[in-house]
Amino acid sequence: MFGVGLHSAIVFASAWVGIGTVVALLPARYIPPGAFLLMLLLVPLLPYLWIAGNPFLAILFLAAVGSLLRWPIVYLGRFIRSKFTGEDFQGPKFDFY
Q1: ∠ CA 69-72-75, rounded to 5°
Q2: CB 65 within 8 A of CB 42
Q3: Helix (H, G, I), strand (E, B), or coil: what is residue 71?
Q4: Residue 30: closest CA among 93, 96, 81
Q5: In this structure, which of 12, 38, 55, 84 has its CB flanked by the most CB atoms within 10 Å?
Q6: pTM for the full model?
Q7: pLDDT per residue as tens digits for the range 52-88
Q8: What residues contact 90, with CB distance under 8 A and at least 6 apart?
């Protein structure tokens, strides 16, 4: 009845958002490793969501990803800008360890 396709892609995307919400609720020292794990899981999930079904759904999921991982995206943008402009990159300061 349910083959591998859009249904499983929606389940995996929903699980990713749920895990992201749990990671966001963890204490601050556990958030960076969880965010990196979520970014690694995002690499195969986004193309799978795009190919398995609806590209609009993949773009909507990408907006949810941007909402959950906003600070890693900001730091990635700062890092890329520092490479082009030659200025010194100031990464995140984790003083809560």
Answers
A1: 145
A2: yes
A3: helix
A4: 96
A5: 38
A6: 0.72
A7: 877 888 898 888 888 888 877 788 888 888 889 988 8
A8: 78
